[in-house]
Amino acid sequence: MIGKLTGRLEYRAPDHVMIDVRGVGYIVYCSDRTLASLPSVGEAVQLYTELLVREDLMQLFGFTSLVEKEWHRLLTSVQGVGAKVSLAILSALGPEGVSRAIALGDWAAVKAAKGVGPKTAQRIVLDLKDKAPSVMAMGGTITEALEGPDLEAVVEPTSDAPVKPARKAAPKAPTGAAAASAGALSALGNLGYSPSDAAGAVAEAAADNPEAGEAELIRAALRLLAPKD
């Protein structure tokens, strides 16, 4: 299984790119949002990947975050949802938008993606709602551009000069909004709320205030979860 590629962006097409990893070119299909976030041709690039293997087909799909990759895996596990539909949903909503829509049961937001009908959107929300909390708590976004020796380590050398080894990247923890959501989910779980209720409240609170920190999300989520008179 190919889980991540680090190399040089060789070329880009409307729905895929080619990444040169020390002389071997990998065709990688991506969502529109992921394609738009990638660097220019000739620059270093990293993507998490998922390999699709069928009798007559092998395709690689690329993602800038573990959240996006996990949503793709889960979306394609739903009956009637293939890789093309999954990428359309991720293109329309982004991974955070998918998390919010599914946690809130908002199938209309999922239906807004190209090629997704109402029945498919409802099935996606119904099948995956319980999976939203664990995905929302994930991190691991590839955002740092490679420079210097890192770049030299992933492209084919053009001379006999020795190539310095790449620096080992430290494991990435959730940051920013992802960290705040993860912390809020954990806190609500410790208070006894079910994962699905906590995820829905955190998603709604984050949608109302995208810049909220962990403490603000917890307070807002608790207000949403409080019994209504």
Tell me what the structure shows.
- This protein has 3 domains: about 60 residues, OB fold (Dihydrolipoamide Acetyltransferase, E2P); about 70 residues, DNA polymerase, domain 1, CATH 1.10.150; about 50 residues, Orthogonal Bundle (Helicase, Ruva Protein, domain 3).
- About 10% of the residues have low confidence.
- A 5-stranded mixed beta barrel has the order 1-2-3-5-4.
- The N and C termini lie far apart (about 55 Å).
- The chain is α+β, with helices and mostly antiparallel strands.
- About 45% of the residues lie in helices and about 15% in strands.
- It is globular, with a radius of gyration of 19 Å.
Number of domains: 3
**Main sheet specs:** 5 strands, mixed, barrel
Strand order of the largest sheet: 1-2-3-5-4
The count of DSSP E runs of length 2 or more, i.e. the number of strands, is 5
CATH superfamily of the largest domain: 5' to 3' exonuclease, C-terminal subdomain
Fill in the keyword field for this structure.
single chain; 229 residues; alpha+beta; Helicase, Ruva Protein, domain 3; 3 domains; 5-stranded mixed β-barrel; 46% helix
